[in-house]
Task: inverse folding
DNA sequence: CCGGAAATGCACGATACTTGCGCCAAAGGA
DNA sequence: TCCTTTGGCGCAAGTATCGTGCATTTCCGG
């Protein structure tokens, strides 16, 4: 699939507002609503648009704390990764988890209601995990930008 | 605004699929479509749902590289933060930026097409910034989980 | 200059959303 | 106990939005 400037405009607009009407989209990208509909369908079909998600307000839901945790695992036994992946999958406080190159083995993006809930997660769940060797936390003080998605040009 | 179990079910479902039809939502949460519509509107009105966003496939768009960068700034002059905030705002490769407690001053979530584009960003943009004192990168090797949003219970 | 494939806009049938309405169940007062 | 009020619910009608067939235009390649 090859993307032209219309597609890029459409994708950019839909990242900002995925509930946009085809008519509004049409106005924004200078195309007819029907063409927007068709291009949208094609982009979804091609898997460029994976889906749509509601963005929720963490503040209004009482989730005041966000943190980035770097984790090192001990040992190198096989099954070590699968084991940690299961741990990640089973803990909804972990919103994102990446295996990374460099100093740490994994980086986790954590959401919690408050510092107590966060400390609880660290001390009752993460640290007791048998393969976790080291944990270093950075708590988010201020969000300068949080766009998710991808910048297209 | 107070949320009951229906609201939580609706929010959870809409985080997974924000383009869901009210009828589908109704079936999933055991409510009528009209009530789903009303509750949805109320949640949007209250700001609990901030909006909707299209999720794009980084892979299909040729954005193969993701990295987490920890940055330390030099000095403590006032205006230092505003300056760095402007830098962040002006660089679309930076998808998220957080000021954090702990070892680093800022954590950045970076997306780039490939290692070259990433290196270019580091050496031509980030490192030359006058207030950047130290930069430590971790490149994402594998994504175990990437949900964004918030887990409700 | 011409032919054809691809893309576009229009119009209309189909689908989904929204809201007025009557109903019901729970809480509180007489 | 009985009545009233209040809030939430489903149904159904009216309205907005979507998706597609079709004729037209645009853009290349020959």
Result:
């Amino acid at each position: 699939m090859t993307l032209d400037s219309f597609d890029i405009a459409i994708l950019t607009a839909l990242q900002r507002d995925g509930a946009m009407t085809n008519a509004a989209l049409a106005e924004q990208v200078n195309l007819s609503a029907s063409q927007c509909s068709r291009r949208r369908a094609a982009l979804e079909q091609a898997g460029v648009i994976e889906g749509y998600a509601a963005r929720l307000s963490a503040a209004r839901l009482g989730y005041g704390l966000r943190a980035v945790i770097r984790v090192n695992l001990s040992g190198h036994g096989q099954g070590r990764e699968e084991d940690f992946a299961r741990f990640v999958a089973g803990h909804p406080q972990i919103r994102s988890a990446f295996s990374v190159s460099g100093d740490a083995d994994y980086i986790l993006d954590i959401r919690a209601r408050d510092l107590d809930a966060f400390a609880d997660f660290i001390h009752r769940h993460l640290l007791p995990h048998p393969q976790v060797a080291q944990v270093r936390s950075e708590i988010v003080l201020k969000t300068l930008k949080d766009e998710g998605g991808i910048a297209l040009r």
Observations:
- Chain B has two domains: 5-45, 65-139.
- The helical segments of chain B are 5-16, 22-29, 33-45, 80-89, 115-126.
- The radius of gyration of chain B is 20 Å.
